[in-house]
Amino acid sequence: VVVRGAAESVVLRGLPEGTALHIETEQGPALSHADLGRLPLGVHRLRARAPDGRDAEATLVVAPERVPQPPDRSHGFLVQLYSLLSARSWGMGDLGDLAELAAWSGRVHSAGFVQVNPLHAAVPGAPTDPSPYR
């Protein structure tokens, strides 16, 4: 279930009359059916119990109407570290080359960032796994 805007009223259709709703919010407090119009932004757990004893649950996402833009937008460069070439690093990029690129891109192009490929394995894994993207 996805709801846009924290103040928006939530109407759940197709529930049998007398279904009890219980919402466990991401922030901790539990809410009842009466509180559905006051849900905070976040990912919550919605549980329903029908009068005949059937139970159901679903993830309830309360998203903002719009994602706020950061105050200052920026641009930058994406580079694979191994693709940086310099005579100093023997034609295979190292962190010194990355520092030079970052300084140059900010100084010459007013770039706000330099994004690089993962430099280390993202998830610890077996030493024989060759992929940093596991």
UniProtKB/TrEMBL annotation:
GO terms for biological process: carbohydrate metabolic process. It comes from the Bacteria. It comes from Streptomyces beijiangensis. Keywords: Carbohydrate metabolism, Glycosyltransferase, Transferase. PANTHER family: 4-ALPHA-GLUCANOTRANSFERASE DPE1, CHLOROPLASTIC/AMYLOPLASTIC, 4-ALPHA-GLUCANOTRANSFERASE DPE1, CHLOROPLASTIC_AMYLOPLASTIC. It catalyses: Transfers a segment of a (1->4)-alpha-D-glucan to a new position in an acceptor, which may be glucose or a (1->4)-alpha-D-glucan. GO terms for molecular function: 4-alpha-glucanotransferase activity. Belongs to the disproportionating enzyme family. InterPro entries: GH, Glyco_hydro_77. This is 4-alpha-glucanotransferase. Its EC number is 2.4.1.25.
